[in-house]
Amino acid sequence: MLEQTDTRTATARILILDNDPVTRQGMESLLAPMGYDLEPVGSVQAAGQLLRGSQVDLVIADVAEAVDSARVLRQLRRLSDGAKIILVSSIGTVESAVQAVKQGAEDYLPKPLTAERLCRAVQKAICEPVPSKSEVRSGSTNQDLSHIIGQDRRMSKVFDMIEAVADTQTTVLITGESGTGKSLIARAIHARSLRSREPFVEVACGAIPDSLLESELFGHVRGAFTDAHNDKEGKFSAADGGTIFLDEIATASPQLQVKLLRVMQDKQFEPVGSNDTRQVDVRAILATNRDLWKEVEAGRFRQDLYYRVNVINIDLPPLRQRARDIPLLCRHFLDKYVSSTRRHILGFSEAAMAALRRYHWPGNVRELENCVERAVALCRDAYIDLGDLPPALLNPSHAPERIEPKEIGSLKEALAGPEKRIIQAALEANGGNRQATARQLGINRTTLYKKIKRHGLDGA
Q1: Which CATH number goes with the domain that contains 67?
Q2: Mutual orientation of helices 21-31 and 115-127 as an angle, nearest 10°?
Q3: 158 and 304 share one domain
Q4: Domain of 151, in residue numbers
Q5: Average pLDDT, the chain
Q6: How much of the chain exceeds pLDDT 70, in percent?
Q7: Taking the chain, what is the end-to-end CA distance rounded to the nearest angstrom?
Q8: Which residues lie closer than 8 Å to 324 by C-beta, 6 or more apart?
Q9: Which residues pair with 194 in a beta bridge?
């Protein structure tokens, strides 16, 4: 089942160039329901006339022979002013596909075309790579913003939060599982703030031993402890005027938490071994993959510090809850590693992408990036296939739960839990769009609405 086109791309203008009217009509009938503005033409000359008078986002061009592709591509690139180009041809070899992409085509589709292949290629060309909402609004090309990929509604809320808090001095707490991209969010906030030209200093608190973390953050004077042979500037001093990002803040010791509370409130601290008070102007962003309130209840995190750091909370969703972003992220990481390795890989096979979307991603985006990097290194064809993916993706170790005899009730009751989880996952995968969810589940909308109400998913 095809994903529904994002509403932001529904007005994209596409020129269809094919000298066969039947083929043109076939592509029109496939793409029109997706909401695109289509302009079918029968020759390069007609395409040139149209392109001189208006702008298009994508050109789909048929080339009769492989030798024509370079010439047609050069003409279209000269005329289309930056539009992406997909070539279609009956010469469907890997070599011709690789050559077309090297010459600047977005994709190369062999005939006979399938509806699935054409629509996915168009969606990918129109939608990817996807910049953050912040980047689109500002026109910025800052790398830290362009690396935040996502169309899921949860990520849209994250983008909105970044914009809302960036220009304030408010402390921000970023929460989420390991690998969800907390460091990227912190950098995006700094990049959008009034402090963007000042230092951004990142400290991985969990990676530094307790005995050294205080010195790392606040510095020390000569003779403060063994091996302190010289004065050392701490990270807070280094971040003066800018932003300090404290990752894994829940690992800080109780003694260090006291000093952190003071520097957060008063912007003052003393280096280790010194009585001289230092003043700094620093905006603090903190992150943790733990539930900080549970840490407070367990006595491991100070309650007063909790309230001080938890002014604005940005909670990042795990990757398994934003499955529609997986193809976008895969394309982003593929482009990154293909560029660095100079491999000629066009994309992922349908089977490989299906496996990537099914997997539960306990390591989140970081694990996905590592997976794509590995696949690029192993792939020897034009498309990454199942054999290039880690074994864990092909045989996920999800052993079925054992049901004890005493737990067995009615079949309706037993199926209620799995049904709810399936509907919730489908809603998440389709960005809350109920019509698309009903299509994916193979049920009508009325039935879906009743099940949503029955399972209490009205807010999904």
Answers
A1: 3.40.50.2300
A2: 60
A3: yes
A4: 133-315
A5: 80
A6: 83
A7: 21
A8: 3, 151, 152, 428, 429, 430, 431
A9: none
Does residue 156 share a domain with residue 288? yes
Q: Is 457 helix (H, G, I), strand (E, B) or coil?
A: coil
Amino acid at 360: H
> Which amino acid appears at position 442 of this protein?
G
Percent of the chain with pLDDT over 90: 31
Q: Is the CB of residue 203 less than 8 Å from the CB of residue 157?
A: no
Is residue 88 a contact partner of residue 61, using CB atoms and an 8 Å limit? Answer: yes
**What distance in Å separates the CA atoms of residue 198 and residue 243, rounded to the nearest whole number?**
8
Cβ contact 187:373 at 8 Å: no
How far is Cα 314 from Cα 220, in angstroms, rounded to an integer?
Answer: 33
In sequence order, the 6+-apart residues with CB closer than 8 A to the CB of 343 are 337, 376, 379
Q: Say how far apart CA 69 and CA 71 lie, in whole Å.
A: 6
User: Three-state DSSP class for 241?
Assistant: coil
Residue 389: DSSP 8-state: S
Phi, psi of 240 (to 5 degrees): -55, 125
Q: Do the domain assignments include residue 460?
A: no
Q: Are residues 282 and 328 in the same domain?
A: no
- Domain CATH code at residue 431: 1.10.10.60
Q: Decide if 459 is inside a domain.
A: no
Q: Tell me, rounded to whole angstroms, the distance of Cα 5 from its chain centroid.
A: 17
Three-class HEC string of 84-102: EEEEEECCCCHHHHHHHHH
* pLDDT tens by residue, 140-159: 333 344 467 887 888 888 88
Identify residue 112 by its one-letter amino acid code: P
Looking at the fold, whether 139 and 283 belong to one and the same domain comes out as yes
pTM over 0.70? The answer is: no
* CA gap 409, 103 in Å, rounded: 63
